[in-house]
Amino acid sequence: MCLLLRRAAVLILLLGVLQPSSYSVQAVQSKPRAARRVATGSRAAGWDDLPAILARIKPPQFPAHDFKITDYGAVTGGAADSTEAIRKAIEACHAAGGGRVVVPAGVFLTGAVHLLSNVNLYVSEGATLKFSTDPAKYLPVVYTRFEGTECMNYSPLIYAFEQENIAVTGAGTLDGSASDENWWAWNRKGPGGADAPARSSIRRLLDYGERGVPVGERVFGQGNFLRPNFIQPYRSRNVLIEGVRIVNSPMWEIHPVLSSNVTVRGVQISSHGPNNDGCDPESSRDVLIADCIFDTGDDCIAIKSGRDNDGRRVGVASENIVIRGCTMKDGHGGVVVGSEISGGCRNVFVEDCRMDSPNLDRALRFKSNARRGGTVENVLMRNVEVGRVAEAILTIDFMYETGPNGPYKPVVRNVELQNVRSASSPRVMWIASWPGAVIDDVRFIDCTFRGVETAEMLQNAGSISFRNVNIEPAKKGNSRNSRPDWP
């Protein structure tokens, strides 16, 4: 059966069928890259485009040379600071043409780690790289992004700037050491509901972004409270993050920015602090996220492309993002696009994933508003098993935060869910927009949604279609004229 809903503005119930480093970071402001802008009316991508994208995503290869951090002065036990030893090992590996910088079994304390080209940071099985909670260990400031706005801030725990052929691999653990006693406290409200320490820093950063203050003048770090990300390759290419376990991150865990040819594979993330997104590709292209486990305090995977005017200034979309074989446990959303999506996003492919937790809010989520704007198109999901979600299978929310208050009308179009099956959810869809913003061509094909509890929410949506879809209510009943004994 095919059901087409056009310009729905009411609630509809559908039941039944239906660190310091050896190199300097230049505070060079990112320039707009018009070639990557999301163009209105660009071609709609489909599953036939996936093989060509995957053919371009190739993990980097490294020479068979090992550089053990213990040979450069690193001491196990988790008390002695191994930052300098790790830096020396990375420099030696880079100067020799590349290879592995090996963290052997044991616990090693470190500050910021800066990768250089052709270096694979290998965390061995039984090894823990434990990061200091002293903010001074992440100075001097580096060129980075904080929640979609460029600035000079504390270094990410593992950082690379304009490097190529870099990796973080192995079966060991990366422990950010974050807790409510340190990094996370920066985002917690004070006594009596007082603002979190980070709020004044965030407001100042957003003001810089809105006014177009040069990035080199947006200096934070010491005396401010903008938490660093965990792993951030920035303007880098040929990146591999594989096998490691990541715990206790200050905030976003894996955050490639303005990077290309990125593979995130077989990573296990368990971190439940504030803004603890699992993987956030931002303004990056040709990204594969495969066979990972996400158990997070915020979105499992969240695709970004810059916030508000700063995102539009840089103007680089996220594109060609492939998500395969992942397991999403706790998190605000399984796969999310936004909200910092002002540069746009296109060509997202999600397949063969499992999502199941009473603390997972949505399976597929889009969020923007009239300050963010952004055009998001060609987002395809297939063969996904969903257990319980707390809000809806699909959420498209243009009422997020400031909602319609702003001049930039967001667009979401060409979204397809095929062979998506769920066991329990309050509703299948929560779609909320306002006149002039675009939500269009949303398709459900060969899907079954069971245990649906209440009415669908559709507000100012365009075309939404169903083909061979079953929506089964949590409480089944018969119509007035149905035979009660009918199977």
Topology (elements, then pairings):
Layout: E1 2-5, E2 11-12, E3 16-17, H1 50-56, E4 66-68, H2 83-95, E5 99-103, E6 106-110, E7 113-114, E8 119-123, E9 127-131, E10 142-146, E11 149-153, E12 158-161, E13 164-169, E14 173-175, H3 198-211, E15 231-234, E16 237-242, E17 245-247, E18 260-265, E19 268-271, E20 285-290, E21 293-296, E22 301-303, H4 308-314, E23 318-324, E24 327-328, E25 331-338, E26 345-351, E27 354-355, E28 360-367, E29 375-388, E30 392-397, E31 411-424, E32 427-432, E33 438-445, E34 448-452, E35 456-459, E36 464-467, E37 470-473
Parallel strand pairs: 4-5, 5-8, 6-9, 7-12, 8-13, 9-14, 12-15, 13-16, 14-17, 16-18, 17-19, 18-20, 19-21, 20-23, 21-24, 22-25, 23-26, 24-27, 25-28, 26-29, 27-29, 28-30, 29-31, 30-32, 31-33, 31-34, 32-35, 33-36, 34-37
Antiparallel strand pairs: 1-36, 2-35, 3-37, 10-11
**CATH architecture name:** 3 Solenoid
Q: How big is the Rg?
A: 23 Å
**Which CATH top level class fits?**
Mainly Beta
Q: What count of helical segments does DSSP give?
A: 4
Question: How much beta, percentage-wise?
Answer: 35-45%
User: How far is the first residue's CA from the last residue's CA?
Assistant: 19 Å
Estimate percent helicity: under 10%
Number of domains: 1
CATH topology annotation: Pectate Lyase C-like
Report the structural category: mainly beta
User: What do we call the CATH homologous superfamily?
Assistant: Single-stranded right-handed beta-helix, Pectin lyase-like
